[in-house]
Specification:
260 residues; mainly beta; 12-stranded antiparallel beta sheet; 4-stranded mixed beta sheet
Length: 260
């Protein structure tokens, strides 16, 4: 609940039972159930004083695996591509932090905004595929043939995403123009499995955007140059990089009461 001006806290907890009755093999019925305790929390803080404002928000979410992912039963309809669930799956937990701070300078017709959004996920559910070089007995009471594979969901941690930005706006009254500069930095980390080996893909993106807009009674003029740089790495080794400049311009002439 709200404790005082500018502070808001909410929390909750729930208990969910997963239960399934499945035909595992040859009309043999298998019953199982699994309980999950699902917490949830949100914290929001807002603060404003004169020309400064701050917003901070923290959210924690737990997501329960689906019954299909939890089924500990082998699907061997295609003997070369086997699939199964995983009754040992943990709940994926996502934690998100959002920060925004702003400064305004009315006398100078200028404003500055800084933001950061960070998302972290533990126990993320991904697909793991194992290939068999020889005929092998599986825990499900079934033999995997040579050349076949088994796909099943597993938990993995280390996934995150960071998004940060700085934006500066300035209005020039003498020429009826506005200048906006935005610097962005994004980073994402995606862990995954190739058979039983863990790998991580990292992506870094830097961008600089400039927008200049001029307005008058007779026309509108806009220039938008942008420069972005991207790096992608696998297990710490650079896979590729790219530098992409762009420029767009727009001129609009007023005819009568409208711009065309």
């Amino acid at each position: 609940g709200r404790l005082n001006d500018g502070l808001f806290i909410s929390s909750g907890i729930s208990l969910v039972r997963n239960a399934m009755n499945v035909n595992e093999r040859e009309s043999l019925m298998k019953d199982w159930s699994k309980d999950y305790i699902i917490p949830a929390a949100t914290l929001i803080i807002g603060y404003t004083k004169k020309s400064f404002n701050l917003h901070a928000e923290y959210v924690e979410e737990d997501n329960m695996p689906t019954l299909y992912q939890l089924r500990n039963v082998l699907d061997y309809a295609n003997p070369l591509y086997l699939s199964a669930g995983n009754n040992d799956l943990k709940m994926p937990v996502k934690r998100t932090l959002d920060l925004r701070a702003g400064l305004s300078f009315p006398k100078n017709a200028m404003s500055l905004v800084m933001s950061l959004n960070a998302g972290f996920q533990s126990n993320k559910i991904v697909q793991q595929t194992v290939y068999y070089q020889e005929r092998e007995y599986l825990e499900y009471g079934y033999y995997a043939e040579k050349g076949s594979c088994l796909a099943r969901p597993v938990n993995i941690s280390g996934a995150y995403n960071l998004v940060s930005a700085i934006n500066l706006d300035k209005y020039f009254s003498s020429i009826h123009s506005n200048l906006s500069l935005t610097l962005d930095y994004n980073r994402s980390s995606e862990p995954f499995f190739i058979e039983t080996d863990r790998h991580t893909e990292l992506n870094d993106t830097y961008s600089l955007l400039c927008m200049f807009e001029m307005n008058s009674e007779k026309y509108q003029l806009m220039f938008i140059p942008e420069l972005s740089y991207v790096e992608d790495a696998l297990d710490g080794e650079l896979s590729y990089s790219s530098l992409s400049p762009s420029l767009s311009a727009e001129y609009t002439q007023r005819i009568g009461e409208h711009f065309e």
